[in-house]
From TrEMBL:
GO terms for molecular function: DNA binding; DNA-binding transcription factor activity. Residues 1-57 form the HTH merR-type domain. The keyword Cell wall biogenesis/degradation does not apply. This is Transcriptional regulator, MerR family. It comes from Kribbella flavida (strain DSM 17836 / JCM 10339 / NBRC 14399). Pfam families: MerR_1. It comes from the Bacteria. PANTHER family: HEAVY METAL-DEPENDENT TRANSCRIPTIONAL REGULATOR HI_0293-RELATED, REDOX-CYCLING DRUG-SENSING TRANSCRIPTIONAL ACTIVATOR SOXR. Keywords: DNA-binding, Transcription, Transcription regulation.
Length: 122
């Protein structure tokens, strides 16, 4: 299949497919005329990458999952490196939650102080 067919079947744009290829996530065959030829396995890879990116993983963090698929596994997340990538992302999310919780506490304190000041001066 050609790039437009792959994009349509995987639910992404042609630009996204080109980006995935530039990141080394796709390695299409080349026809004699130089056109890229994609397979059904590439559709699976693109769908997996799309799903992982939607979870906040970077293109680089998707490599273990893609390698897991290329190793012949039915799922991209059953290999040890994939599990490590999940753990890393969860740790990043936990750090961000902690940062946001701290920020929320500061903002709540400032709001309470401002409201208290306003009531005293009104």
């Amino acid at each position: 299949m050609q790039i437009g067919e792959l994009a349509a079947e995987a639910g992404v744009t042609v630009k996204a497919v080109r980006y995935y290829e530039s990141q080394g996530l796709l390695k299409p065959e080349r026809e004699a005329n130089g056109y890229r030829r994609y397979t059904q396995a590439d559709v699976v890879v693109v769908r997996e990458v799309k799903a992982l990116l939607s979870l906040g993983l970077t293109a680089e963090q998707t490599y273990p999952f893609i390698e897991c698929l290329r190793a012949g596994n039915d799922r991209a997340d059953v290999c040890p490196a994939s599990l490590t990538a999940y753990r890393t992302r969860i740790a990043e999310v936990d750090r961000r939650i902690a940062e946001l919780t701290t920020l929320r506490g500061k903002l709540t304190g400032l709001l309470a102080d401002a409201e208290s000041w306003r009531r005293r001066t009104a």
